[in-house]
Amino acid sequence: MDYSLAALKVMCGQLRKAKETTSQNAFTLGGVLFQRAWLQGVLVSVSDDAQGRFVLDDGTGVIHLSLSGDFLHRNWKIGMYVMVVGGYFVRSGEPPMIKVHKIVDLSPFPDRESMWYLEVIEAFRLFYQPLYEE
């Protein structure tokens, strides 16, 4: 994982348009090279086993999450609003997945969801849109 590449603030719907690159184990989205994604959404499926498979819905689509380590020992529940950052992976014959290296329960902060949409728009306008227009 190349941590010099920023984690893109994106929506699940945008990730569907990401294209795999031929090198660097990375993806491009409108000319932006990335390996990690930063998303927020509601947990709609929570695994009770050691597999740590969860599903996040952000209103534009769903993405599978893979949790490991200490994250598995926390009390995750369906309906929690969470922020996740992790490596983006496309698996053959399976839905795309985020291998989570940070997850935070934002449920106690009800304004976070509406703020998230604004953050994604702002990030697009400031950082990603100029690359789309090149």
UniProtKB/TrEMBL annotation:
InterPro entries: NA-bd_OB-fold, RMI2. GO terms for biological process: DNA repair; maintenance of rDNA; negative regulation of double-strand break repair via homologous recombination; regulation of sister chromatid segregation. One of its GO terms (cellular component) is nuclear speck. It comes from the Eukaryota. PANTHER family: RECQ-MEDIATED GENOME INSTABILITY PROTEIN 2, RECQ-MEDIATED GENOME INSTABILITY PROTEIN 2 RMI2. This is RecQ-mediated genome instability protein 2. It comes from Vitis vinifera (Grape).
